[in-house]
Amino acid sequence: MNRINRENQLFQLILARIKETIREPGVIFWGMIFPMLMSLGLGIAFMNKTDIFRRVGVIIHNQDTISTGDSTHVLQSFLQHQTEKINNPKDRFPAYKFTIRDEKLGNSIFLFQEMRWDEAMVLLKRGNMSIVLNEQKGQIGYHFDPLNPDAQLSYLKLSGVFGKKGNPVAENRTNIQPLTVRGTRYIDFLIPGLIAMGVMMSTMWGISYDIIEKRSKKLLRRMVATPMKKYNFLFALMTVRLVMNFLEAALLFIFSAIVFGISIQGNIGALFLIFMAGSIAFTGIATFISSHTSKTEIGNGFINAVVMPMMVLSGVFFSYHNFPDWTIPFIQPLPATILADGLRSIFIEGAGFAEITVPSLILITTGVVFFTAGLKIFKWH
Amino acid sequence: MQETAVIEVKGVHKSFKTVHAVKGISLRIPKGQFVALLGPNGAGKTTLVEMIEGIQKPDEGEILILGKHWKSNEEELHRILGISLQETRYIDKLTVAETLQLFASFFNLYRDRVDSIIDLIGLEEKRKSYVVNLSGGQRQRLAIGIALLNNPKILLLDEPTTGLDPNARREIWVILMKLKEQSETTMILTTHYMEEAEQLCDYIIIIDQGEILKEGNMEQLLNSDQEKKIVEFTIESNSFSREITETGSPFQIQWDPARKKGIVEIHHIDKELPALFEYLGQRNLQLKNLEFRKRTLDDLFTSLTGRHLHE
Ligand SMILES: Nc1ncnc2c1ncn2[C@@H]1O[C@H](COP(=O)(O)OP(=O)(O)OP(=O)(O)O)[C@@H](O)[C@H]1O
Ligand SMILES: [Mg+2]
In sequence order, which residues have a C-beta less than 8 Å from that of residue B147 and are 6 or more positions away? Predict the structure, then answer.
């Protein structure tokens, strides 16, 4: 750093802004740590293949416990030989555990319990159990509500186990190709959404709150009572925010690449373009809403009023196509939606400049319009 | 005061929604003079000073700094002014040195200027402390340091010592007195404290409710009523005292019932003092204490408005 540079006001404004930003622990937490935690939490919650656990009622006709060596009874011999007996003194019914192993879809664990018909019906009605088996003349009978998809699933799995002839099979031999290839998992949807959210939140809070706070501390009026150039002040604020946005997004991306194997399918240049455009859009909006007030409470209200609807509507966490059709035309033009959709199309669908240019221009225009309007009414004193 | 004025304010008015804050004030301040604007809360001191600083615009009237209007001379005037606003809070998480460095850059000043300012305001030990961790007095010294960075021709300080304890206040006075000795800076300082005006300033302007009540140096202000003397007395606490300020009394007694203390201005000791004794005696009021003291700016203010500077 040479001497001329150090005395340059823009350089000093940027330097001061960087120091001020990184010395605020909240900035690091909310901007960097929190999105990573969020991706971790949501990514794991929606990714782990969970074991399916089901209870199955077994009706025993003779009311006795299963007699040993009675090989004609398929069900009874199955329970006797192929399951793990569970002795739980609290449970009135003898129980047997049977697991269908499946690496890809998750294990299905069935807990067979012997009971009388009337007892089974009670549990069925309570929803504690969805399927009841009995055996008549060597045939296994399945009793369940055909409208209950859960019961159907149990039926399909169990009938697979017992087979047509009632030969129990404990291995899933069909060749299943689970759709967990990259780009189609929930985490692939989530990460671009979180990056869009990060740009929105960090820019709105980073810029609006800072301006309003400096105004309320009377620091803004003190600064403009010097030969400081106003555009240098704003430029420093925005540049530092932009760099911080970039670092925050890069950190989240690197984290999710390591933990979840996220990758970018599309054009990196286009990604950079839409990212910048999104930052510009929110910088403009942030300047606009902080142009007049010197009350931080009012500022908080403004920021939340902008940020909250977009958090919910713009498809950060789930697709906005879940909302009623008539709302879609209102949701799609929101800056956060444009940014999230654009980022996603590059991350997941492999989009490039062709798809991204128009949304980027819309975002940049939004930013410039709000920024210009904000400057018109900007209160420095 | 024949030389050209550094600051010239002519018939300035300023109103807010419901308040007429400044009602036609005119000033001429020559080079090198230290001027105190003395007045109670809401007198209009800040409004006047901020108009001089170019932060607020007068509704009416004219302000000239070194013969120049604010309009179209902003850049130049910002370079020669040093200001400290009432209640500015600087960036919490910057250190003293960093804050000064930032403001120095606005004036294209070098680092050695920052060092000499830190030395001048006596914050050597705090140069690496965050602003948020400074005491009230240290913050005010920093604010004055920032105001002095550019060796201003005109220094405008709005209540630089309000809320500080006497020691911290004196430290600031020392900085300003040093400045007065060593430079030709012209200064306007607003204050509630008459001692401050008395100690630091050559010229005192008492303002109240947007108007100048009286102005001049200490001599002129206090000796204009040369013959008036101030008598302060207290009476025994069991004496009956309700009628002491009754109408028709020959004395204008300012009565403080809580402390059983009265202040009265008299012109002729030999005639009026016996009359005062007689007046009190007739009412069965037993004197506990009585003393003459020098007239102060507060007495002046009280005689002009019927109120005290601090209320
Ligand atoms: N921005 C404003 N809007 C409305 N009223 C204002 C504004 N600024 C000042 N006033 C009013 O103008 C009057 C003068 O205020 P000013 O701040 O100039 O007083 P002051 O002498 O500096 O008082 P203090 O000693 O308390 O700082 C007050 O009645 C105040 O309420
Ligand atoms: Mg004031």
Answer: B82, B83, B84, B155, B156, B157
Identity of the residue numbered A378 = F
Quote the pTM value: 0.79
Cα A250 from Cα A317, distance rounded (Å): 19
**According to DSSP H, which parts of B18-71 are helical?**
45-52
By the CB < 8 Å criterion, does A223 face chain B? Answer: yes
Neighbours of A232 (CB within 10 A): 18
**B243 sits in which H/E element:** none
Rounded to 5 degrees, what are φ and ψ at B123?
-110, 30
- The pLDDT tens digits of the residues spanning A36-69 come to 999 988 888 776 566 777 888 888 765 444 444 4
Q: Which of A9, A16, A217 sits opposite B89 (nearest CB)?
A: A217
b/e A57-90 (16+ beta carbons within 10 angstroms → b):
bbbbeeeeebeeeeeebbbbbbbbeebeeeeeee
The predicted-structure confidence for B202-236, as pLDDT tens digits, reads as follows 999 999 999 999 999 888 887 766 667 788 888 88
CB contact under 8 A, B90 and A3: no
Q: Distance from A285 to chain B by nearest Cα, in Å?
A: 24
Tokens of A78: 């199955």
Domains belonging to chain A, first-starting first, are 51-178 (3.40.190), 186-377 (no CATH)
Which residues in chain A come in under a pLDDT of 50? 1-3, 63-71, 169-173
CB-based contact B104:B113 (threshold 8 Å): yes
Q: Which residues have C-beta within 8 Å of that of residue A91, sequence separation ≥ 6?
A: A113
DSSP state of A52: E
Q: Could you tell me which of B43, B44, B45 has the C-alpha nearest to residue B35? A: B45
Task: Quote the ligand 1 centre to B16 CA distance (angstroms).
Answer: 9
CA atoms within 13 A on the CB side of A132: 20
The pairing of strands B287-293 and B261-266 is unpaired
**What is the model's pLDDT at position A286?**
96
pLDDT digits 0-9 by tens, B22-62 = 999 999 999 999 999 999 899 999 999 999 999 999 999 99
Q: Collapse the DSSP code of B49 into the 3-class scheme (helix H, G, I; strand E, B; otherwise coil) and give the result.
A: helix
Tell me the Ramachandran region of residue B66: left when phi exceeds 0, alpha when psi lies from -120 to 50, beta otherwise: left
Question: What ipTM does the predicted assembly reach?
Answer: 0.84
